[in-house]
Amino acid sequence: MNAPVAAADLALLSMTEAADAFAAGEVTATALAEACLARIAAQDGVVNSVIRLDREAALEAAAVADAARRAGRPLGRLAGVPMMHKDMYYRAGRVSSCGSRIRRDFRPAVTATVLERLDAAGAIDMGTLNMAEFAQNPTGHNRHFGDCHNPWSPAYCTGGSSSGSGAGVAARFFYAALGSDTGGSIRLPATLCGVTGLKPTQTRVSRAGVMPLSFSCDNVGPLVRTARDAARFLGVTAGHDPRDPTSAREAVPDYEAALTGDMRGMRVAVCETWFLEGADAPVVAAFEAALDALRARGAVVTRIAVPSLRAINAYTALISRVEGAAIHANWMREHPGDYAIHLSARLYGGYAFPAHLYVEALSRRGSLLRQFVAEALTGHDLVATPTLRTRVPTLAETDIDADPANWSRFMAVSANTRPFNYLGLPAVSVPCGFDDRGLPVGLQLAGRPFAEATVLRAADAFQQETSWHRKAPAL
Amino acid sequence: MEPDQVTMEAIARWGGIVLPNEAARIGLADNAALIAELEALRGTMGFEEEPSGFEAALRDCREPGQ
After folding, report:
1. Domain harbouring A11, CATH code
2. What range does the domain containing A409 cover?
């Protein structure tokens, strides 16, 4: 065994650092799990990120991993690493609440393919995480399990819908978490909580055994500490799945091999339409500083206009609202009172959209993707935006249940993330500074379809140039 | 803008779904913003006549050489 890593530092490691330390014999899986469990016990009372903690099962799985390594058996790429996941990834026989009262006792008969792949890679599943009810809000409010609180300052939103995933990774409760992203639900909590979140290309990761929100725009991806973590996580989870016929058959590259730290020759576009309109000054300042960091790594940054964005954004809202409304129609008819006010109110509006516009939005998705790529990604490798245009809002000022007048502030949170769901493009959010109230700011980088290696190469180069991703909240 | 009573009746008739709470009035009224966006785009958009699968576009728009 190599020199052990100091116990007090274990929870602060990144996912890949923890996995590599375990593989090298520098730390045991049991010690990693105990470090995470101790932090959860001490601090989740403030954050409220956990719905279900399988403490004993996690320690048993860690002991099995330790025994396997001692015996010299082959180890998976994520062996010994404790994780927790948004409570909408089904594991056969285990309750999957989807953050709702309606599914509080729902025990699926199947296990999600992504969980099976993480299991096969040796990851340790410690339980399930708080989330927006049915993944349907961008703030982190939850009336049934309690709101999730930002670990940087508990009065503020965590972002949603993968609220527990973002807050828990930021609080160093576990090394990685699955989120889901239909309009920004991975990238928003990553931004608001100061961690790294990746929405892969539409169809890149199997959705079998995952609660649907919008069949056209749902994506599966990780919230982690670093771009390197995201690269390894994606390498384990991506790839065609016969159980999800919509999953892509593209080869899965070695994403970590792409992380050179070098952006020379890369061109980054900044869209002056849409993404910066009405942006708060502290966000713009952090974003401009982030662009300087990309330039320092060799990137060339240019400003462009993208006329297609207005149509893209309008269509995005149509598709996700209509599909969400369709999925919930029976429950909205039979149990409307079981939803939180903000959710039933939002779903209700979705029943008013005319069908011909929904069909039009779907029919134009391919051509608008081609148009966006022509306008923004021809001659550029990436598009850069702030992930959230405004400073992080408080839970109170986005609470529709308490005051419906908060509606517009609530809906504005996902303005910069939604377009990439309609377009199906990969996009990562990385921390790029703090606002004047000490809450994180995020940089979003999006690329061409299946260009996760390029997106992650840039994100990793940014993280080699800066240290924002290493900052942890003092709970 | 107050939501149209006709719209609420149509939702009830087509789907059997009734206004769940007062906040839903705001949710419905908020559709006006999207209607305005679509109205502004009218004439520039329309049903795509040619076959144009989204998955095919994803493949076609990959990085050169990928």
Report:
1. 3.90.1300.10
2. 7-470
